[in-house]
Specification:
Layout: E1 21-26, H1 34-47, E2 51-55, H2 58-64, E3 69-72, H3 99-111, E4 116-121, H4 123-145, H5 151-156, E5 161-166, H6 182-203, E6 206-211, H7 218-227, E7 231-233, H8 243-256, E8 262-267, H9 280-291, E9 295-299, H10 311-318, E10 331-335, H11 343-355, H12 359-366, H13 368-381, E11 395-401, H14 408-421, E12 425-429, H15 432-437, E13 441-443, E14 462-463, H16 471-480, E15 485-490, H17 492-503, E16 515-519, H18 535-552, E17 559-565, H19 572-581, E18 585-587, H20 595-609, E19 615-621, H21 630-640, E20 646-651, H22 663-687, E21 688-689, E22 692-693, E23 701-707, E24 710-715, H23 716-719
Helix pairs in contact: 1-10, 2-3, 3-4, 6-7, 7-13, 7-22, 10-19, 11-12, 12-13, 14-22, 18-19, 20-21
């Protein structure tokens, strides 16, 4: 059936006595998304016909037993998806560090037939899980010798399988690119930074922000990249000798360019190259003493752990395949964005490298994603002196095409700054192809794009107009301004525009230049890319709105909400929004449905409303069906649910395109645009002959897309064959 995890099919009703038992616990520091992970494990466990148990208060509850280990049902995890922290509690447990404590924990599990554990926690929690698994056979034998269990139990429960789901806002577990809670923590940090920037600008202040990360600088680094911070201190990459002078010069130069504020981000574990701590107070005192700037310190602290989980964190854990099979051996798997069993060893190696002063090695061990973030930040945050920049004499134009999408401005900023670093002269085109035809083009400098990262919409202006009817005028403008390359940031219209410009090369030599497209649309419907800039922000808007709408029904009579999302013919927003918000159904164009399915969903909601659950949620993509409109579904549900529940409808509309970009969209837009500009530089060198750029091959007009976590350049001519234009 078309069902999300809030829709329990009828065959789940009698699943007891199947022999499988799963225990789920959260341990160590809490992280947003842990409840979503607990919910996913419980419902997937029930789906595979297993008994599922809550282990309250982490390992302490496992040791204490009794009411701390409780069997749960499908309904036990209703309405926890959007709740921060962990509803089953988390506690530090000294007794589990002793063999006696682990012996008692093993006894409590065997008493309930639990031989599968899902441990949601950080490095310490998963280290404990690994030790428990290694000792399992010996613990059972010791229990048998003491007469606590019989030999049959030793044989029956001989194998313990564990899945470790990494829940840590620090993102300090090597082998997975993103841990549970990290994206939500970035949301909290960026919300604070955006708020601070307005007051800092008013008073021309410098703010030093301290974020969590005792041993890992991920939060500090990515938040610095997302807000365009002037300086960042992280433990893996300490500043060089004399950093005090370099930082003060940088801050002074920014003020000289009429920038009214400075943002410095410090990880709580930041150190210098001699392994001595760099504190936020030390940085503040330095700025005040040397520059006399009005400087304030803000320590974010546990704010970063609080609040509701982001859409990314909810989806990350809801899609997990965390339920362990019944195996004939002791098994432990660490689950993250990548399966990797080397996590513990790599994490220890990173700390060892930092302790020994091998900081470049520490950065490498953190993984490719961390290394790319650091390199991109260094590239965009510090402008090299003009005397050190290469002189290429190439002019590159950047324009936005299609509907606005949050993150477009971050992409433009990255393109401009990388282009200038590469030695190009950068031009900004106002109002898309239509503005291009009208000559609305101007040179843009490094300082012109300062502060753009956190701005929503499109500062350059964008229109859906395609270039076909303006080809001659656009060619004239390219000739007049000597444009040698084009970067187009936009949605499906941008893709169509590049196809039209490519087709016009036979008639206009001006279009025989390298051209690249960076996908940016809330609909996420651009061929050749799994993700588009703006889709994550829109998804968070939908998720937040659904949370508020569901909350509005608390304490009222039973109510079902029908929510219409954007997306055109692409069901990404409706489908992922339903997963993140815990909806009962999602209607999308890609998965056709009929009146019988609508009726089945109404019947499901009617049954559901007869329990303690008082609200339902249905998401509908705006173009999922021309006849089964939002009004039709609303009227159907209202009529069929009469006497059981009433119905409300909400069309979210253009609020999905507005607002400040999410951390993901800021960073994705920044990194993908930087890579696109580096590709342009490479193509310009390859196609420059006899004082002129001439590129007319298919591979000189490309779309840069995210394919299975890799950024791939794909000729638009090749993508044309796999595109459903209708």
């Amino acid at each position: 059936p078309r069902s999300t995890m809030d829709h329990q099919p009828k065959f789940f009703e009698n699943l007891s006595g199947t022999g499988k038992a799963i225990g789920v616990l959260t341990s160590g520091g809490d992280a947003q998304g842990m409840n979503a992970a607990v919910r996913a494990v419980v419902r997937m466990g029930i789906y595979v016909k297993a008994k599922v148990y809550f282990v309250y208060e982490g390992y302490q509850g496992m040791v204490d037993g009794g009411d701390n280990i409780v069997e749960v049902s499908w309904e036990s995890v209703s309405s926890i998806l959007q709740v921060g922290g962990t509803v089953i509690g988390s506690a530090r447990c000294k007794s589990f560090r002793t063999r006696e404590g682990r012996l008692q924990a093993a006894y409590n599990l065997v008493q309930r037939g639990i031989t599968n554990l899902c441990v949601i926690g950080g490095d310490g929690s998963l280290t404990g899980a690994n030790l428990f698994r290694e000792e399992w056979s010996g613990l059972l034998e010791e229990l048998a010798q003491k007469g606590n269990i019989d030999e049959d139990a030793v044989k029956k429960y001989a194998y313990l399988n564990i899945v470790g789901m990494v829940g840590s806002i620090d993102n300090d577990f090597c082998g997975t690119d993103m841990t549970i809670g990290t994206d939500s923590a970035l949301h909290r940090i960026i919300e604070v930074v955006d708020a601070i920037m307005t007051t800092a600008q008013s008073h021309q202040r410098t703010f030093v922000l301290e974020v969590m990360g005792r041993h890992c600088g991920y939060l500090a680094l990515v938040s610095a990249l997302a807000c365009g911070a002037d300086w960042v201190f992280i433990p893996e990459y300490p500043p060089e000798e004399g950093w005090e002078d370099s930082m003060c010069i940088k801050l002074s130069e920014n003020r000289a360019r009429k920038k009214r504020l400075n943002i410095i981000i410090v990880a709580e574990g930041a150190i210098d190259c001699h392994n001595k701590p760099i504190t936020s107070e030390k940085v503040k005192d330095l700025v005040v003493q040397r520059l006399g700037f009005d400087t304030r310190v803000t320590i974010l602290g546990h704010v970063q752990r609080g609040g509701t989980p982001s859409a990314f964190d909810r989806i990350l854990v809801s899609k997990s395949k965390a339920i362990t099979p019944r195996c004939k051996y002791n098994l432990i798997i660490f689950w993250g964005m990548r399966y990797n069993q080397l996590g513990f060893f790599k994490t220890q190696e990173v700390q060892k490298a930092m302790d020994e002063g091998r900081f470049l090695e520490a950065v490498r061990l953190r993984g490719r994603s961390f290394e790319n973030n650091l390199n991109t930040y260094k590239l965009l945050s510090h402008k090299r002196p003009d005397t050190e920049l290469p002189k290429t004499n190439f002019n590159v134009a950047v324009l936005n095409v299609g509907a606005p999408a949050a993150g477009m401005n971050a992409a433009v900023r990255a393109a401009v700054r990388v282009g200038i670093t590469e030695g190009h002269k950068m031009f900004a085109v106002i109002d898309g192809f239509e503005g291009f035809a009208r000559g609305k083009i101007k040179e843009i400098s490094w300082g012109d794009v300062g502060g753009w990262t956190g701005q929503g919409g499109s500062i350059l202006g964008t229109k859906r107009t395609l270039p076909a009817k303006y080809l001659e005028k656009i060619a004239d403008q390219m000739r007049t301004n000597n444009i040698n390359a084009l970067m187009v940031i936009g949605g499906f219209e941008a893709y169509l525009g590049l196809l039209e410009l490519s087709a016009a090369r036979e008639k206009y030599d001006e279009f025989c230049v390298p051209m690249v497209m960076v996908p940016a649309t809330v609909s996420n419907n651009v061929p050749g890319s799994d993700f588009s800039i703006g889709a994550d922000t829109a998804l968070n808007t939908i998720t937040d709105t659904c949370d508020r709408i569901k909350q509005s029904a608390s304490g009222t009579k039973r109510r079902v909400f029908i929510i219409e999302t954007m997306g055109g013919y692409c069901g990404y927003l409706a489908n992922m929004g339903a997963l993140a918000a815990g909806a009962d159904a999602a209607y999308i164009f890609e998965e056709q449905f009929d009146i019988r399915e609508l009726q089945a969903n109404v019947e499901h909601l009617t049954e559901k409303m007869k329990t303690s659950i008082q609200r339902g949620l249905v998401l509908r993509n705006e173009n999922c069906n021309e006849n089964y409109t939002t009004d039709f579904i609303y009227q159907l549900y209202s009529e069929e649910g009469k006497g059981v529940f009433d119905c409300r409808k909400n069309v979210l509309g253009h609020m999905q395109q507005g607002g400040a970009p999410s951390p993901f969209d800021r960073n994705f837009g920044t990194k993908i645009s930087a890579k696109a500009m580096q590709w342009i530089s490479k193509k310009l060198k390859e196609t420059y002959r006899k004082g002129k750029v001439f590129a007319n091959t298919d591979d000189s007009v490309c779309l840069l897309g995210m394919r299975r976590r890799n950024l791939v350049f794909q000729p638009v001519a090749e993508l044309k064959t796999e595109t459903d234009f209708v």
